[in-house]
Amino acid sequence: KSTIPEYADRINNLPEVAKTCLCVAVTISKTCSSTPFTFRYLRKYCSEAARQLMSTDIDVDQFMTLFQNLIDQGLLTFGSDEAHDVNGLGPEVLLGKPV
C-alpha cells in the first residue's frame, strides 16, 4: 500500500496536463458524488481545463493514455472494478466516481 508521500511524488512527477486531468476527475467526483458520469463528459471538462490553463488541446488518444497512466500509477481508480483498462471503454460508458 502506498503512502501519502509516495502519492505526492507520483503527482509531482506528472506532466502538467495529467495533473490538470487528475484535478478535473477528482473535482467532478466531489461535485457529482452520487451521479455516475461518462468518459465523454470527463474528456470534455479535461479538454476545456487544458485549453484554458495551458492553451493546449487534448485529443482522444492522448486523453485515453493520460487516464490509463493515472490508473496504472494508482492515482485514479473508478468505483467499478471493470474500469481498469480505459481502452475498452467507449465514450458513453458510465463511470463510477473516481476514488
User: How does the major sheet shape up?
Assistant: 2 strands, antiparallel
**Outline:** globular
- State the low-pLDDT regions, or none: none
- What fraction, in percent, of the residue positions are helical? 40-55%
Radius of gyration: 13 Å
Describe the structure.
This protein has a two-stranded antiparallel ribbon. Helix content is 55%, strand content 4%. The chain starts with a helix and ends with a strand. It is globular, with a radius of gyration of 13 Å. With 99 residues, the protein is mainly alpha-helical. It has helices at 4-12, 16-31, 39-54, 60-72; strands at residues 37-38, 94-95. It has one domain (4-95). The model has no long low-confidence stretch (mean pLDDT 80). Helix 2 crosses helix 3 (39-54).
